[in-house]
Amino acid sequence: MMNDNINKRLKNAIDAAPIDLLEKIKAMPVEKMAEHDYITRQEEVDKRHKIIKPALSLVAAAAVFLIAYLGWYMPYMKPDSIVYLDVNPSIEMAISRREKVVELAGLNKEGKELVDDMDYKGKDINMVLNDLLDKMLKEGYIDKDRHAMLVSVLNENIDKGKSQVHKLNEIIRDFFKEEEFKPVVLRQSIVTTGTIEEYAKKYNISIGKMTFIKNLLILNPDFELEELIDLSIEELIRISRDTGLDLSKIVDIDDDLIEDDLDDPDDIDDVEDRDDDRGYEDDDWDDDDYKKYGNKSNIISAEKAKSIALGLANGKITDFELDEDDGRLIYKVEIKAKGLEHEIEIDAHTGKVLEHEIDD
Amino acid sequence: MEAFEKLYNITERTMYAYIMSIVKNHEDTLDIMQETYLKIRSAAHLYKPMGKPLSWMFTIAKNIARNKFKLENRTIDSNDLDLENKMEFSYIQDPIDKMVLKSALTILSEEERKIVLLYAVTGMKHREIASNLGIPLSTALSKYRRALKKLRVHLSNQGVNVK
Lengths: 360, 163
Description:
The complex is a heterodimer of chains A (about 350) and B (about 160). By secondary structure, chain A is α+β, with helices and mostly antiparallel strands. Helices cover about 40% and strands about 20% of the residues of chain A. The longest helix of chain B has 22 residues, at about 1-25.
């Protein structure tokens, strides 16, 4: 109790210090050093004490400075997951182990405007998400007729990502309790890959939305990347439904909501008719086949599985097999990429990524 | 540049607290901070990720501080008038906050100051502080306890009640 008090006072005292250096430092010219001097020389690390591993180091494709920056997060501030919220504003949030928002950024023009003056540092994800939704309602990005959003969590550990996604979904549901409509929330837990990241950057959209679009393209190769990029999540759902895609193959979605809110009744009939132009191998796929699994004609092609896997980790396939697991057919792909080994399991029936493990 | 900005924003108070524990006054701290970040910008491409980036940043700050005082031909722990004047901390509103900081800077050793300030300011765990300062965890813990006790006694002798 007493120590708390001293610590608090010290913190207050240090926090009161006016520090206004960033702009000055940024404005100063800097010459890159050819080699370390006595000031910057790195001390050898004692292997036994080497415990803190940069969490996102697998984004190794980025520029050297970016790697340094990712490795540079202080352990306690280190983002544990990155959350992407796409409505039409695209928003990126880095959250720490303790579910505090460490960083908040808008990725497209609307997103940037939205987060511009928001105070988020160190706040609970719950609070920040509520603020964001509030703002989106006020600014008219979400209303009775348009209320679809995509929530993606990027975490090295897919299961952890999944539980985060679930939590965020609850927060969103709670928020809309008072409203006269329920939002349509698409949810996905994602892992990062160099390729997707590059595309996301190129088109100024979130890695979450890029992953979603990439999966849509796999489901329906007739789509063109460029035509999907600028669509809002709402429009993406509509166009997928119109072309008969089953979104539940690539994202988590509450089906009742979709049908109530987004589908015109006619569209549901269309789905049956359009089976043949889905461009997806498992045309006759239905729940019974799902259980029968044995019919190999119902699965996606090896080529498709490979391309899904390579979309997650752009490298060299070192092992590839079709396996049976708990009555399901599963493609198991091992990929070596940038010194890391990826083990990816893909549901052969749906193309859904079931597992993605990364080893040094 | 964006990456650098993020790095700066995340580490600003931490670096301030660390450098403050070495030089004990606001102006010098700002000078050294500025030089440290400039050095980081010019050497970032040479940095080998070894899991402890903060400790590298600390090393740079420490070297720059040592250098500066060597050049200006004064010792860091000097009790000269100059330093007394520099320890005004006029920007700290609360008199007790100010008193506690001044006491910490006056009566604690440099290593104690680092351990105590980093712990109070950054919310880092003792383990993380020890690892980034390159000292064993047990040392960090015992120094922390001893330092806090010293501070408490000193403050109550000054008539400051820190409960």
